[in-house]
C-alpha cells in the first residue's frame, strides 16, 4: 500500500509540476514586485502559496461541478486563460511609461483618506492574480486536474488513498512554489533594476506566446470535438 501511495504521488508530481511550472511565477514576481520591501514581498509569496494549494484542492473536488454548472468547457477554459495570460504578457512587454515605476507598482493614492501627499501607499496585492492564477495554477494545470479527476470517477471513484495522495501532492506543489518564489530574493540582488526590467520584458513576450498557444490549443480541441467521428 505504501509503495502504491508513493507511486501515485510521484506520478502526480511528474505530471503536474511541468504544467504548473512555478518558475513562471518567479519571473512574474521579479517583474511585478519592484519597489516592494522584503517583508511585503514575502507576504505576497506566503499568500500566493496558500492560494495555489486552495486552487488545486477546489479544482480536484469541485472543478468539474463548477464548470458544468456554468456551462464552461475545457476548450473555453483554455481560450479564456490564454487571453488572460496574453494580457498580462502585453503589460509586461510594453509597460506604461506615463507613470513612474514606483507609482505603477505601489498604487500611490495621495487623495485617499488617511494617505498624505507623497506618502507610500500599501502595495497592490499580486498574490492571487497573477502569481497563483494563472502564474502556476493556470488553465493547463486546471484542465489537467479536472480531466484526471474525471478519469478517477469513471474508474470507480475516489478511495482513501486517492484523498491522501491529493493532499500530499497539493502540499508538495505549494512547497515547491514557495521555495521557488522565496529564492527570487537572491535573484533580485544579483540582477538589479536593469536586469529585472530585461527579465520582465522577455517574460512578457513568452507569456504572450503562451497565451496565444493556450488559445490555439483550445480552438483545435473545440474543432476536434465539433468534427464528426
Give a written overview of the molecule.
The protein has helices at 2-20, 22-32, 38-69, 74-93, 101-106, 127-136, 139-154, 160-182, 184-226. The chain is mainly α and 229 residues long. α1 (2-20) packs across α8 and α3 (38-69) crosses α7 (139-154). It is globular and about 55 Å long. The model is unreliable at 99-112 (pLDDT under 50).
Produce a short descriptive summary:
This protein is mainly α and 229 residues long. It has 9 helices and no strands.
Furnish the topology, listing elements before pairings:
Elements: H1 2-20, H2 22-32, H3 38-69, H4 74-93, H5 101-106, H6 127-136, H7 139-154, H8 160-182, H9 184-226
What would the keywords be for this entry?
single chain, 229 residues, mainly alpha, 9 helices, 79% helix
Principal-axes shape call? globular
Q: How would you state the average pLDDT, rounded?
A: 82
Main structural class: mainly alpha
Topology as a string of helices (H) and strands (E): HHHHHHHHH
